[in-house]
């Protein structure tokens, strides 16, 4: 392309050079014609000057002739005829010269004008041509520099390409040699692999009874690749889900409990009047909420515990999802059971005389939201039960549909969050309207605040779990099934269970291969260690039993703790009310006494001023008035002291009972720990006793065999006397050792029985 452009530019430069040369030749010709015209002009001016001089001469001659004519008229008359003829000739000649001069002047002027015009045109054209030539020369120079640079660059590239082509040629030669070698090796490998394939096919046909890759049932038993990072990620996600479910469970428990309290105090307070049978039944059902809500947390905890680093967590092996689905179904049944009562309770509240139009509108909104809440839980239960199908009934769900199930769960969780936000907003407005009622009590306000706080916690927990599920939806739908990807159905749970067993066996086998051979323990030491392990109080079974008992106690204590925390809150509210009422009564009573006390001295002073002039019998009345004044002040002091004594007495009673409860709790914990320890000791001693009895039986059998051998040796005549004595002594030594061991065993057995008896007595 550069070469083609270079040729075009060269052609343009040549054409421009030819044009400039032709223009130069034309300029030369014009210069020549201009010089010729100038020469003609010079000759004409010279001729003109000659003629002018001649005319001047003729005029001088004419003047001389006229002067001579005046002097000599006679001579003039004689020669007048001759001069007339000469004059006419001169005049004609002069006239011709004048005309010719005029014509020459005109031609000269025209030629001069034409020359000037042509010179101006040629000068302008010359300037234009010089400018064009300068531009063309600049273009030519720039193109020359550019093409010289391009030529140098192309020459350098050509040199580099020649070097590269040489290296590529050498590499091509090497590659040809290598390809020839590789082809030779490939032929050899094909021959070797063909022979090995024939040999392997012969071995497979002769030795292998079946091919498990042809059947999907056999493929399901193959252990998949272990992805430790995926298992850790899934366990982390399960831990986060467990924390969110625990928050939801706590919020649901608080919501149902405070709703039960609300039913008891609004619209009719059960402390002052009997509530309706509908609300009584509704309150009774709400009181059972913990038995339906708590299993949700336990089911999620079991799901979290089933996901470990060593197992394969897929939908076919997640058998704990079935239990969680059942717990969710039981809670859904609880919601369905309380829903009609809740709706009827709201309708009954709307029908009461205290309900305003705005409060009725909020109640109807809450009526609709409660129906939507139950419907959302029904959706969640449906999708969770579908996820639990691969581990129980795999034919109920196709592998191509479980991604859609996870997507619908995420959408349902977001809907659950939106519904809870609506319920929280509606309940906030409802509680505000109820506080404005004239019959609103402090207990109702406190209960409404507790319900609002539980709804806020429930809304926050639902939002967290919805966003958590949406953010990790790709991870959930990535690989929650194993087996061939082309299959449309899930693998049967029995095959998945067998696969897990095979995985455990494979892991154990790999561990046994990687485990270094340890030094063998001596037989006597191993026996002693076995006895210690069997008779130890810290055995695995004992510790597991203690842990189970401790977990049961902890669960019971947590239930009691929640119950007593609620009771404490109610008692605290009642105590605040009683303190407020007591303060109000005390302040009223004190103000009355103070008023009486202030009035009595005034009356006494008036009596004293009025009765100063009376007799002494009248002094007794003043004395009685003073005494009454003193009694009133004493009563006032007694009331104040009584109030402070009541508070101090309550504090003393409270501290005494708290100390007593702490002391009894410590004694109870100590007694529990001692009983557990004594029970473990009794179990260990019972194990030791059974082991000692077994060893006693084995030693008795050995003793019997030794005595039989001794009698047989004594009866055999083949042995010599010395040999018989040595064998007899050896057997006697063995018998004495066995008898000593039996005696020691009997002593230890008696001691252990005594210890067991004493421990039983102590534990009782």
TrEMBL record:
Alphabetized SMART domains for the sequence: KLRAQ (SM01254)
Pfam families (UniProt xref): KLRAQ, PPP1R21_C, PPP1R21_helical
Single GO molecular function: RNA binding
Compositional bias (Basic and acidic residues): 605-618
All residue ranges annotated as the Protein phosphatase 1 regulatory subunit 21 N-terminal domain in the record: 1-94
Domain of life of the source: Eukaryota
Low complexity composition-biased segments: 77-87
Entries under PANTHER family matching the protein: PROTEIN PHOSPHATASE 1 REGULATORY SUBUNIT 21, SMOOTH MUSCLE MYOSIN HEAVY CHAIN-RELATED
Descriptive protein name: Protein phosphatase 1 regulatory subunit 21
Source organism of this protein record: Piaya cayana
């Amino acid at each position: 392309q550069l070469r083609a452009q270079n040729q075009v530019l060269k052609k343009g430069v040549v054409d421009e050079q030819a044009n400039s040369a032709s223009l130069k030749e034309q300029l030369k010709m014009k210069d020549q014609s201009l010089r010729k015209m100038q020469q003609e002009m010079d000759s004409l001016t010279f001729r003109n000057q000659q003629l002018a001089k001649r005319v001047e001469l003729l005029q001088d001659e004419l003047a001389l002739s006229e002067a001579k004519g005046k002097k000599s008229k006679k001579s003039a008359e004689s020669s007048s005829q001759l001069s007339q003829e000469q004059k006419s000739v001169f005049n004609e000649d002069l006239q011709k010269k004048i005309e010719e001069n005029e014509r020459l002047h005109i031609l000269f002027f025209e030629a001069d004008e034409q020359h000037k015009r042509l010179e101006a045109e040629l000068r302008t054209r010359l300037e234009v041509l010089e400018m064009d030539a300068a531009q063309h020369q600049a273009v030519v120079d720039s193109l020359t520099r550019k093409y010289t640079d391009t030529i140098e660059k192309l020459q350098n590239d050509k040199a580099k390409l020649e070097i590269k082509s040489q290296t590529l040629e050498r590499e091509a030669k090497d590659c040809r040699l290598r390809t020839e070698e590789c082809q030779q090796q490939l032929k050899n490998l094909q021959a070797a692999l063909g022979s090995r394939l024939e040999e392997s096919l012969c071995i497979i046909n002769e030795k292998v009874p079946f091919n498990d890759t042809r059947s999907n049932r056999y493929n399901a038993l193959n252990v998949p690749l272990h992805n430790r990072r995926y298992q850790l990620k899934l366990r982390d996600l399960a831990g986060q889900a467990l924390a969110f479910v625990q928050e939801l469970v706590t919020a649901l428990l608080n919501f149902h409990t405070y709703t039960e309290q609300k039913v008891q105090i609004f619209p009719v307070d059960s402390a002052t009047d009997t509530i309706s049978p509908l609300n009584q039944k509704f309150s009774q059902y709400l009181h059972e909420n913990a038995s339906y809500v708590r299993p949700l947390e336990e089911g999620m905890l079991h799901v979290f515990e089933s996901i470990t680093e060593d197992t394969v967590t897929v939908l076919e092996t997640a058998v704990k999802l079935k239990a969680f689905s059942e717990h969710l179904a039981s809670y859904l049944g609880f919601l369905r059971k309380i829903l009609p009562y809740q709706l009827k309770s709201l309708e009954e509240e709307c029908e009461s005389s205290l309900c305003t139009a705005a409060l009725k509108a909020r109640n109807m909104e809450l009526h609709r939201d409660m129906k939507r809440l139950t419907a959302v839980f029904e959706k969640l239960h449906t999708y969770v039960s579908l996820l639990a199908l691969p581990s129980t009934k795999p034919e109920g769900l196709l592998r191509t549909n479980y991604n859609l199930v996870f997507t619908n769960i995420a959408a349902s969780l977001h809907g659950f969050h939106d519904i809870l936000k609506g319920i929280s907003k509606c309940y906030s407005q409802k509680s505000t309207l109820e506080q404005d009622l004239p019959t609103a009590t402090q207990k109702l306000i406190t209960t409404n605040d507790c319900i609002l706080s539980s709804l806020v916690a429930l809304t926050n927990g639902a939002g967290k779990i919805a966003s958590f599920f949406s953010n990790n939806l790709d991870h959930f739908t990535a690989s929650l099934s194993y087996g061939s990807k082309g299959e449309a159905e899930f693998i049967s749970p029995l095959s998945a269970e067998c696969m897990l067993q095979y995985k455990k066996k494979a892991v154990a086998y790999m561990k046994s291969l990687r485990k270094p051979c340890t030094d063998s323990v001596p037989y006597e030491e191993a026996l002693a260690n076995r006895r210690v392990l069997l008779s130890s109080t810290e055995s695995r079974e004992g510790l597991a039993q203690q842990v189970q008992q401790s977990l049961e106690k902890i669960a019971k204590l947590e239930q009691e703790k929640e119950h007593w925390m609620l009771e404490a809150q109610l008692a605290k509210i009642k105590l605040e009310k009683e303190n407020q009422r007591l303060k109000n009564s005390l302040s009223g009573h004190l103000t009355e006494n103070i008023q009486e006390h202030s009035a009595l001295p005034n009356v006494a002073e008036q009596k004293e001023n009025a009765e100063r002039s009376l007799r002494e019998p009248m002094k007794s009345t003043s004395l009685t008035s003073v005494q009454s004044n003193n009694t009133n002040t004493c009563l006032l002091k007694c009331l104040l002291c009584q109030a402070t004594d009541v508070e101090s007495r309550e504090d003393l009673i409270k501290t005494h009972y708290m100390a007593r409860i702490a002391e009894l709790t410590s004694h109870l914990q100590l007694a529990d720990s001692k009983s557990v320890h004594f029970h473990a000791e009794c179990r260990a001693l019972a194990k030791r006793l059974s082991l000692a009895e077994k060893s006693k039986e084995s030693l008795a059998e050995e003793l019997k065999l030794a005595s039989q051998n001794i009698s047989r040796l004594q009866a055999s005549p083949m042995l010599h006397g010395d040999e018989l004595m040595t064998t007899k002594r050896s057997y006697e030594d063995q018998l004495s050792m066995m008898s000593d061991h039996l005696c020691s065993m009997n002593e230890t057995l008696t001691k252990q029985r005594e210890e067991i008896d004493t421990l039983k007595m102590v534990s009782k």
